[in-house]
Each structure stands twice: as C-alpha cells, then as structure tokens.
Write a structure and sequence with these properties.
Number of strands of chain A: 0
Largest interface: A-B, 68 and 67 residues
Shape of chain B: globular
Oligomer: heterodimer
Number of strands of chain B: 8
Strand order of the largest sheet of chain B: 2-1-3-4
Largest sheet of chain B: 4 strands, parallel
Number of helices of chain A: 10
Distance between the termini of chain A: 19 Å
CATH topology of the largest domain in chain B: Rossmann fold
Radius of gyration of chain A: 19 Å
Largest sheet of chain A: none
Radius of gyration of chain B: 19 Å
Shape of chain A: elongated
Structural class of chain A: mainly alpha
Bound molecules: iron/sulfur cluster
Number of domains of chain B: 2
Order of helices and strands of chain B: EHHEHHEHHEHHEHHHEHHEHEHH
Distance between the termini of chain B: 31 Å
Helix content of chain A: 40-55%
Strand content of chain A: under 5%
CATH class of the largest domain in chain B: Alpha Beta
CATH superfamily of the largest domain in chain A: Alpha-helical ferredoxin
Number of domains of chain A: 2
CATH topology of the largest domain in chain A: Fumarate Reductase Iron-sulfur Protein, Chain B, domain 2
Chain lengths: 155, 294
C-alpha cells in the first residue's frame, strides 16, 4: 500500500482550530458514543497518538457522508484522513468482520452483495435477462496487483 | 442517444424492479442502453475505506469497459456515481495515481483515457430536451402528489467533484429530481435538514443497525413534518434505509406515519405508462398505494 495512497496532507491539519464544526455536522457522532472526527484529528495528528487511533474500533463507524469536510471552515479534507486511517488500520488487522466478509464476497463474485436464486427468478418474471457474472478472474488479479492481498487472502 | 447502463450490484440483485423501470423509461424516451459486463463500482463506503488502491484500480477497470465502446455512463446509484466520478477525477488530475493504475490495467489490455462522462440518472433526465419529452409523453401524471427528495450523500458530496457548481457551505442541494418531479405533474416539497445522511453505511459496515436507524428516523420525522405523500431517491441503499427502515421503526413506534419510497426511475417509468407489474412495486415494504391511486 501507499503506492497510490496520498489522501491528505498532514500540514493542512495543523490549521485545524478544533472548533468541532465537523463533529457537530457528523450524523454518526450524534448516535454513536466515542465517535468524534475532531477528536480523531486531535489525537492522530496533533498529539501523534497514531498507534492508538489505528487500533480504535470506532474509526469504522464513519459513514463517509463528507458532511464534516464540506462544512469545515478551513476546507480540511477530514474524510480523506479517515479513509487513510481506515486503510492503515485494515493493514494492521483492525477491520470489522462484516467488512472483511463483504470484501471476500467481492473478490469471489465481483459483486458487493450475494446473488440468490430468487434474484434470477424475479428478474425472469420482470422480463429481465439473468444476471451476468463479471470476469472475476480478472478482478481478482487486479485486486492482487493493487495490493489487496495485504489484507485479504486472494488465493 | 446511446449510453452504457451502470446498474451497480444492489439494483440487479436486490431490486430488479428498479432496473426494469430504467429500461422502461429509456424505451419511452428513445434512450438506447448498452449493457456492459461491469463489476462492482466498488462502493465508496466499502472497499475504498479498506484498500484505496484496489478500489481505484477496479473502478478504473469499469471506466475502461465503457470507454472501449466510446460511451458515456448512466448510473442508478449515488455510490456508483461517486466512485466512478471520483476515480475519473483522480486519474485525470494525479499523475502518480494514473501511472499506478495504468500499469495494472495495461497487463489486462485496458487503457484509461478519461474521455467519458459519468451521468447520474437525475442529471440525465433533468436535461431540458428530456424534460420536454417526459412532459410530452406523460401517460399518468402524478397530479396532486407531494414528493420530497433524498439524493444520498454521495450524489453531491464532495461537492467539488460531484457537482459542477460549488454549493454554499453545504446547505444547498441539487435540484435535478425536483425538476423531474415537476415534469411528472407532482409537487416537490422541501423539508428540514434535507442534506442529512440516510445512515445506511453504519448498519452495513459495522452492524450498528439501531444507530443507523436512529439517523434515518430523524430524517423521516422531518419528512413527516412536511406531510409528504412520497419520497424520491436515486440510490438503492438509501431506498432500503427509508423503505425497510420505516417498517423496522414502526415495529417499535407503532404510531409512526409512513410514506412510500420510490427510486426516481420507478416514478418516471410509472408516469410514462409502464406496465405496473413490471416495476415490481410489490417488493416495497411500504405499500406503493399513494402512487397507484394518484
Ligand atoms: S471543522 Fe475543521 S477546523 Fe473545525 S475542528 Fe473540524 S477539522 Fe478542525
Ligand atoms: S464523513 Fe464520517 S466523520 Fe465526516 S461527518 Fe460523515 S460520518 Fe462523520
């Protein structure tokens, strides 16, 4: 990883005022205790508590809605930082089982959700063609070449 | 007009009625759809957060598949549009990332040139010529219906990539679905905190279903306060969050006022006279009665 991952510039975050407009705009912070984008910036960047933050389960609660960065008075790319943190955390083994299962399914089927016999039955009833599976062999190779096997066993 | 249809995974597998609606409305509006064997977009809430490089490479592969046929892409899902458009943007702007992806794709006989446009269905339908055509060919006007919209965060954020015009501090919203709703003869309705997220990712990624529904419930309350007859969305994940979400919330909050939710493709196909059975509206958890009786 890191080859094409350059999602944020650290210096940009030194402009953070800790005003908490990001947290105030965050739909997840309102409903999940312990999730707070302002605090993630404070700890990860300003206090340098990188390892601690990379081990936090809470980082996976971000819905990637971008409300925080859209409203930040300093145009700080907060969701870019969160993606960066999540990517590094996944590499260290901090990845929820639900997400790991979803990534495995995608590598196996090329799709993000499981197709069932019912899908094709309903499609036929509606006059639609049966599902056409994407070229999963090529997709798996591309995943591997991009480095996903650092996180997932791609066989 | 000919365009490649990017259905994404959720619609063809879980909500095929929405795909059928898209095909019906395309036929009615003389839009020719080309089917390409795309893979998952992949989702901006999923693979992108886990492994950015793999996300970028797979998305670039999808773009190449459309580009090989010299076609623009029409999307039915805000997440797909976000991934494809952001990838197009990154590969056009960032030399390092372009070279990284180029090397991977070259070994599979593919090359990204960045010549295609990615159009979200509402943007496509809100073009003046198509709005005129919709009005001309309207078979079942939705007169008297008050319809609100929910675009889905990824439809319009980050605004510098997803929208041509910069929005005022994130308060303003797109209005293409409002134009379409008017063309269908219905009345678009505003409500409080219209730019709020549906909350779906929280349940899907982390199993926090309760919390995710709490986010949806707030938005549903604002919609009910505006006394809407129906909600229009342009994303199957938002659809599920509001359609199944209302059903789940109602189990605990039995007095909840509910309203049917529609993908904008379903509303347009219906108003243009598509056979109702073909739209599979019976798969909705909140009955579509308000529409059928309009
Ligand atoms: S809104 Fe911007 S400046 Fe304010 S705390 Fe958040 S990141 Fe820092
Ligand atoms: S992108 Fe994440 S951190 Fe930012 S407002 Fe949305 S859920 Fe909160």
């Amino acid at each position: 990883m890191g080859k094409a991952l350059d999602l944020f510039e650290k210096e940009e975050f030194y402009k953070c005022l800790q005003c908490a407009i990001c947290t105030g705009s965050c739909p997840v912070a309102r409903v999940v205790e312990g999730f707070n984008p302002r605090e993630i910036i404070l700890r990860y960047i300003l206090y340098g508590e990188e390892d601690e933050v990379l081990g936090m389960k809470e980082i996976w609660n971000c819905a990637t809605c971008h409300a925080c960065q859209e409203r930040c008075p300093h145009n700080i790319t907060i969701s870019g930082l969160l993606t960066h943190i999540q990517n590094l955390a996944a590499k260290k083994g901090n990845l929820p089982d639900t997400m790991k299962a979803a990534m495995t399914l995608m590598a196996e089927t090329g799709w993000s959700i499981q197709a069932t016999p019912r899908s094709d039955r309903v499609r036929t009833e509606l006059g639609l063609a049966p599902l056409k599976r994407p070229d999963t062999a090529e997709i798996r190779k591309i995943f591997k070449e991009a480095g996903l096997d650092e996180i997932l066993d791609l066989k | 007009m000919k365009i490649s249809l990017f259905t994404g995974c959720v619609i063809p597998i879980k909500y095929p009625g929405m795909e059928a609606a898209m095909r019906e409305l395309a036929r009615a509006l003389d839009i020719e759809l080309e089917d390409v064997k795309f893979g998952c977009c992949p989702a901006p809430t999923g693979l992108k957060t886990v492994h950015f490089d793999a996300w970028l490479a797979l998305a670039a592969r999808n773009l190449c598949l459309a580009e090989e046929k010299n076609l623009d892409i029409a999307t039915l899902c805000s997440g797909c549009a976000n991934t494809l458009r952001e990838t197009n943007h990154i590969l056009s702007m960032d030399e390092k990332k372009r070279l990284f992806v180029h090397d991977i794709l070259a070994s599979h006989g593919k090359e990204f040139k960045g010549s295609m446009k990615i159009l979200q269905l509402p943007e496509l339908l809100a073009r003046n010529d198509i709005l005129d055509l919709i009005q001309k060919r309207l078979k079942r006007p939705l007169t008297g219906m008050k319809i609100a919209t929910h675009y889905g965060c990824h439809y319009f954020r980050p605004s510098d990539i997803m929208l041509d015009e910069k929005l005022d501090l994130g308060y303003s919203l797109p209005y293409s679905m409002e134009l379409i709703i008017e063309a269908l003869g219905a009345e678009p309705v505003e409500y409080n905190r219209q730019d709020l997220c549906c909350g779906a990712a929280l349940g899907i990624n982390n199993g926090l279903t309760e919390e995710s529904l709490e986010i949806a419930a707030e938005k549903i309350n604002w919609m009910n306060e505006a006394e809407i007859d129906a909600l229009a969305v342009c994303c199957p994940t938002c659809f599920s969050q509001f359609d199944s979400g209302q059903a789940l919330i109602k189990r605990k909050k039995t007095g909840l006022r509910t309203f049917p939710v529609f993908h904008i493709a379903e509303l347009v196909a219906f108003a243009l006279g598509a056979e109702v059975e073909k739209l599979n509206l019976k798969s909705h958890k909140i009955p579509a009665g308000a529409l059928i009786n309009a």
